[in-house]
Amino acid sequence: MSARILFSTTGRVLSQLRHDKRTIALIVAVPLVLLTLVYYLFENQPQTFDSIGLIMLGLFPFILMFIITSVAMLRERTTGTLERLLTTPLNKADLLFGYGLAFAVLAAAQAVAASALAHWAFGLRTDGSLVFVIVIAVADAILGMALGLFFSAFARTEFQAVQFMPALVMPQVFLCGLFVPRGQMAGWMQALSDVFPLTYAVQGLQEVGSHTGATGLMWRDLGIILGAAVLALVLASATLRRRTA
Amino acid sequence: MGSVIDITDLVVDRGGRRVLHSISVTIERGSVTGLLGPSGSGKTTLIRAIVGVQLVRSGTISVLGYPAGSPYLRPRVGYVTQAPSVYPDLTVRENARYFASLYRGCSRQDADRVIGEVGLCDAADQLVGTLSGGQHSRASLACALLGRPEVLVLDEPTVGQDPLLREELWARFHELARTGSTLLVSSHVMDEAAHCDRLVLLREGRIVAYDSPAAIRTATGTNDLEQAFLRLIKAQAVAAVA
Predict the structure, then answer these.
(1) Could you tell me the pTM of the whole model?
(2) Shortest Cα distance, chain A CAs vs residue B205, angstroms
(3) Where does residue A157 rank: exposed (0-12), middle (13-18), buried (19+ CB within 10 A)?
(4) Which ipTM score applies to this complex?
(5) Which of A15, A87, A90 sits opposite B51 (nearest CB)?
(6) Which residue from B186, B184, B157, B141 is spatially nearest to B40, judged by alpha carbons?
(7) B-chain residue closest to A80, CA distance
């Protein structure tokens, strides 16, 4: 790996985004609009908003980053730039972590905007610090990005890549404890929920919501999220083959 | 001088079909070799095998004494794909600077220099996606000239280019060869063949001829290389029947 190539790859991905202002606007604005909808949905039940709004702060970055990275990596494959890059001194890890870093910057901007709106405009209350909410949201973004990079290897077209979102993301959203507390699920569903990394993102946020200081469970959840992200990145690097038929 | 690319008994299958049938060829240092043949003759597959991105069935390919695609070769072999492979959502300059950053010792000035070499100075700050087809492929070519590669493998780099610019590009290729680079340039247009020191004529995954343009003209008794190619194919078809 080379720090020079990694950072220049990050810079390149950010430059591409800079030329696509509409995408940046959508990434930052869409969560704000959705959060506003949810706020007014539970206008008379501020406690419900406190729990659901909080979880949504972790879901937005996960879902959005999954979609944009799987499409971005698929584009590298279909335009031939990936094949070309793999004939240069660039290391696969430089490329993947370069992407990771660029999208983490974007995710941080998104998380700060959404958390700020939730906290100051809608009075979302958490016992723990807002900083931890943002940290977990960024970790969720990195997880979504890593899974997106990995699963993009299994899509040949953008149509397929976009379908991976409902196929791989929605089950995690259903079983993460947002709709039904995990304790009330059937055993096999709980088992599925246990292996879905998004579960730990939600649990981590709930810890911040109900405890003033950082809890051990929160740190463990954060560790699991980042560990799953690293695992997905390693698997993604195995799918980047230099030689193809 | 010595050989730079050594291919022995290369066999490649793609999509269950044999694309290259036991190709053997040696390419000398400091030469401009043209890889000519009709569309579907296996030019791109051969090129992909040389840069080490093609899965091969059997045979050996060594470049500068190393197996094709080995890490040693990555800073030393430049590759331009047939479809331009640069980022359409970046400007020409941003593309060149990014590819420059991948090579040790390559500066921003080098990036600006190669943009000039392919005649894109006026379009340097334009998004690649808004360029014409010819400009787009030149932007892709510029990025392969970075890092002064010892071996430059170009898949149809002059297709759709202005005739004057095509002359300039060929002059540039020969200049690179004079300074010790070895170039392999594919084309499906026969009138490009005269620009090359040596020609590899490829048809249906087999080498029809490998010689200098002059030797091919003499052997076939025609000055027109297109005709020469035809005569060679016909002669081989007759030989195969007999």
Answers:
(1) 0.87
(2) 16
(3) exposed
(4) 0.86
(5) A87
(6) B186
(7) B85
Closest CA to A177 of A38, A89, A91, A52: A52
Identify from A2, A7, A12 which residue to disrupt to test chain B contact, counting B C-beta atoms within 10 A and taking the largest count: A12
CATH number of B3-76+149-241: 3.40.50.300
Domain boundaries in chain A? Answer: 3-239
Average pLDDT per consecutive 10 residues, chain B (242 residues; last block may be shorter)? 88 92 93 91 94 93 94 91 91 96 90 91 95 90 88 88 85 90 90 89 92 91 88 85 76
B27 SS3 class: strand
> Where are chain B's structural domains?
3-76+149-241, 83-148
- Residue in A with minimal Cα distance to B103: A89
| Segment holding A133, helix H or strand E | helix A130-151
Contact flag A244-B74 (C-beta cutoff 8 Å): no
What's the pLDDT tens digit per position in A175-217?
998 888 888 999 999 999 999 999 999 999 999 999 998 899 9
Any idea how long chain B is?
242
Find, in chain A, the residue whose alpha carbon is nearest to that of B57.
A245
Chain A residues in contact with B69 by the CB 8 A cut-off are: 87, 242-243
> Any bridge partners for residue B35, and if so which?
B186, B200
